[in-house]
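Late entry, written up from scratch paper. The run itself happened at the end of the previous shift, but nothing got recorded in the book at the time, so transcribing now.
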Amino acid sequence: MAACRVDAVLTDVAAARSWNLPLPPWLGLEPIPVSVAVPAEGTRPKRAGVRGRRLELPDEHLVMKDGIRVTTVARTWLDCCAEVPLAHAVAMGDAVLHRRLATASELTDMVHWGVRRRGIVTARSALAWLDPGAESPGESLARMALVTGGIRRPRCNANVIDDGQWLARADMLWDEERVIAEYDGAVHISEAQRRSDAARRNLLQEAGWMVIVFTARDLKHPEAMCAMVRSALARTT
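Output as recorded:
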C-alpha cells in the first residue's frame, strides 16, 4: 500500500483511526480514502482508495506506530480540525487529554505552529473548550451543545459531595444551582446496572439535586437540551 513508501505518512482521518480517536459517525458510513502524505518536496501518492497529498511534515510531528509512520496525536488532531465540525474537534481533543495521549500544552503548541493552515480557526476555538474530565464523545458533544447554546460551562465528571458524604460522580455539574446533566450513551446495559443507575439518581434527587438525562437522540435537538438545562438552572436559583 501507499503507506509502505519510505516517505509516506498516515495523516488526518486515517491517523485518527490508527490512534483510535473518536470521529463523526458519518465518516464511517462509506469507504473513506486513506489519507497519505509525503513531504512537500515529494511525489504525491496516486492510487485507488488513497488520498495523496504533499504536506509540511517536520520530523517531530511523526512517529512509528505498528510499523507505519503516522502523524503524532497532536498533529493528527490539528489536521482533523480541518475535516470535522467544532463539536467533534472538541470531542477528539477531550479524548486525547483524557487518555493522556498528548498534553494541553502540546495541542496549544501545535495550534501555534499551524497558524494559517486549514482548520486552524476550528482548532483555536476548540482549545478553549477542551476538558480532560470528559469520559466519552457523547459527553463532549452534549457539553458543547449546551455551552454553544449559551449555558454556563459545567464541571465535568465531578464528585458530588453532600454534607461530607460522597453521593456520585456527575457527567456535568452546576454546583450553585445543584443541577446535574448526564449523558446516557448505553444501548445495551444489564438490568443490575440499570437499577444501580436509577438508585443513584434517586439518591441525588432526594439530596436536593435535579438530574437531567440526555441520550444520543437528544443531541439532534440541541435547542431542546438547552431549554431543559436553562429551565432547571433558573428554577433552582
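The chain has a mean pLDDT of 86.
(Scratch paper discarded after transcription.)
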